[in-house]
Amino acid sequence: MSERVKVTILGGSALATPKLFEFMGKAGAQAAYDFVLYGRNQERLGLVKSVSESILALTPSLDVQISTSTALEPALEGADYCLNQIRVGGLKGRAMDETFPRQFGIPGEETVGPGGFNNSLRGIPVVLDICRQMERLAPAVKLLNLTNPSSIIQYAIRRYTTVDVIGTCDSPVSLMESIARLLGEPREALQFELAGMHHFGWIAAVKQDGRERLPEVLDRLEEMPKLGADAEIVRAIGAIPATYLKYYLHPDRILAATEGRPIRAHQLMVLAGQMLEDFRRWEPGPPPQTLNQRGAVWYDKIVGPTLLALAEKGTTELVLSVDNEGSLPWLPEEAIVEVPVPIRDGELQQPRPASLPQDVQSMLAQNCAYEMLAAQAIAEEDRDKAMRALLSNLMVSNFNQVRGILSLIWPGEKTHQFESASPQQERNEHKEEQAALKKPSLYYGSDLIESLDPHEESYVLVTMREPWEAAQARFTRQPNQVIFVQALDWYALEALERAIPDVESVVAMGGGTAIDAAKYVAWRRHLPVDAIASITSVDASVTKSIAARAGGHVTYIGYIVPRNVYVDYKLIQSAPARLNRSGIGDIVCAHVALWDWNLAHKHKGEAYDPQAAAGVQAWIDCVAEDAHEIRQVTEKGIRTVMEAFEDISLICRRFGSSRPQEASDHTFAYNAEFQTGKNFLHGELVSLGSFVMARLQNNNPQRLLDIYENSGILWQPVDIGLRRDEFITTLETLNWYQKNFGRRYSILDERKIDEAFIQSVTAQLRFED
User: In this structure, are 707 and 603 located in the same domain?
Assistant: First the structure.
């Protein structure tokens, strides 16, 4: 190919842009390219250009030249292709999109719901102005749109300009890859039938050599928790939804899961600052390490393949957003749809959409109405259409929400404009919080239940039958209602909360299940919660998070700190000693977690707090010293465990996460429960996981064995109910589980568990054979 291809990148100062050139090297691009990076900041453009050129130098056969421009006209003039990756409003705008909808009981997100509408409100006018320049300066240009919300932006471009635009998104590719991994097949071996809209797509068939494999996927949906949608509804529909459908199907859960947690925009602001400093310090050679931390997979998965297929006259099939034109006959001709599009000799062919169930068609039709009305409202500055658009959005449930949203974001009505906190403000507020960190008041004694008297006139007791039977007669003031809880499945928690009458406070009595359930009720109803620990098995009574289960996996939701915690020695000592001993498993597991944390700090640059690590290590030493007291469930042993729970919880809260306390040890435990479908005593299972992971780390596993022996905690598979075959399956799948569902970087990201390791560790364990 002798003619050079001019490609203009709008938003070319984005620090992840070098990943596009990395893809071109891996893909072996054949054409001669002139790339123009367009942006407003010359320093950032220069940094991106330098890093990109160093990447290109690794593949000398490439013919790629890069220039920069802060002026739009020369950047666009004569362009053959243009990549739009502008983020209007930057990450500060994204922070607003992710936060203000919460005021109306709606999850915040930059592409869907009111957050996506606000993002469009900023983006559409700017993109349309640029496209009108394209009409004049590069009338034949093909525009690849990456700017979100992609299909709304794309529809506005098609309706109000003549620019030929194609939408690109990596989400469909990621979903197909996830299904392929589930089936143990390369993605290229499967043919997917897919149809929908941007972040609203559905896979309706998965075929291999003419054989339908979708039923296998539906049967194993619990292995895809990142899907975010309950397996029950997905199986009922018979099609796999895009991950963003969770915002429509489970908005309450998304709100719960994001409560009290940093938003993605603020995380990206911090990362962007680190990347910029790395780019500034960078010297020619390997690219800055933080380049890979951004996770800019869209270049590899869809942007790069699309550009090369078009520019180099390739033949392939890609999932793209294009004009409908009858592809989905139940949607308007001018709608933007996301479908598999064959490409032959660089030309787009007739799409190959899937057939979707009628109820899914109905959802898509409503989403289509929203997107078209939203684009029209913003481009035409038509408030009436904006009202209609938001009322059509599947995440908006009533007109009062619509009025409130528009009063906040519509131009000319910003009487109560929402201000989103910056990461620095968030850090300052966090420091202020540390000065008076909210924590529970712990009371120790043998007659605390008799003296229990919540300040409120009415209260509900959330408990289990065993502790209630042991303590019922000791309550001098009986609860207004007693609710027994058996499981922490999200459905069960929601049903539990609905079953409780109007009360003024909540009291929990029990172990982790009862206390987490009570915390959930109190959090949902904005009520105070007190806790009576009936066993020392878990730290739920002193922590802020609420553990729930969704799709067979543990998830942490909400944010509430118990007001008072009553440690009644008599009640605790009446419980089986095994339950009380098990609690140390959630303390000494930090032996493994601290090692993993240090590994992540050294190899990934993860933030590390030596003071926090030392504080947690001190409690491991304290538990080891008092192991015999814990074994006998003495008052001193009980107090040691509870004070360790309390202080480690505060250490983690000061640091900002549970990183100092849990890592690969908990990953082992969660995978064991997932693979077996069994419920175990948490501390015992974590203790087994800690030993196994300490072996994998070569991290003094004998230290753990000594503590286990002296404290009497049960941890051997034969004692906790884990069969040999179940244990082996847990280990064989542990690297897979870490890759897909792991919460913390750990030894499992660096060392593969092989047959030799499985055999050696199995030989040290006892099983019921």
Answer: yes
